[in-house]
């Protein structure tokens, strides 16, 4: 793992990157990187072949990645990526319509935060335990698999019918 500086503060550790199904809210892809790896470098590993629309944080996409995604047929709008929040440029504010669009997309994107809430609140996961990114990644993979079972636990206990 490694350290990175954000503002005047230093952080040490890792990042968990997940991809969640928009309908069910279940995690289908998990990745772990060191703390200094930028989010935009891992977006290709999180998108699966059947995915046609991606709702992502604005840090995951650059203008070049938006154009490449449109060329691959993943997104169906012409002016911008369908589910990525608008990002203000330096010394420019977002327009009122962009702010409304961001608010609308945020309710859909909130499903990505639910598995993290399960890990932190229900399972008590706060800190990494191991020194290597591989061991911590394996632990995250297991925890997110269990986090997928947590919301459907009542249906699993009652069985079919």
What does this structure look like?
The chain has 161 residues and is α+β, with helices and mostly antiparallel strands. It has one domain. The protein is 37% helix and 18% strand. The strands form two sheets. The protein has a three-stranded antiparallel beta sheet, covered by helices on one side. The chain has a two-stranded parallel sheet with strand order 4-5. About 4% of the residues have low confidence.
Beta strands, count: 5
Question: What oligomeric state is this?
Answer: single chain
Number of domains: 1
- Note the beta-strand portion: 15-25%
Q: What low-confidence regions span 5 or more consecutive residues with pLDDT below 50?
A: 76-81
Helix content: 25-40%
- Morphology call: globular
What's the tally of helices? 6
Task: Quote the average pLDDT.
Answer: 79
Main sheet properties: 3 strands, antiparallel
For the largest beta sheet, what order do the strands appear in spatially?
1-2-3
Order of helices and strands: EEEHEHEHHHH
Structural class: alpha+beta
Short descriptors:
globular, 6 helices, 161 residues, alpha+beta
Q: How is this structure best summarized?
A:
With 161 residues, the protein is of the alpha+beta class.
Please render the helix and strand layout as text.
Layout lengths: L1 E5 L2 E12 L6 E8 L8 H4 L8 E2 L6 H9 L11 E2 L11 H14 L3 H10 L10 H17 L3 H6 L3
Parallel strand pairs: 4-5
Antiparallel strand pairs: 1-2, 2-3
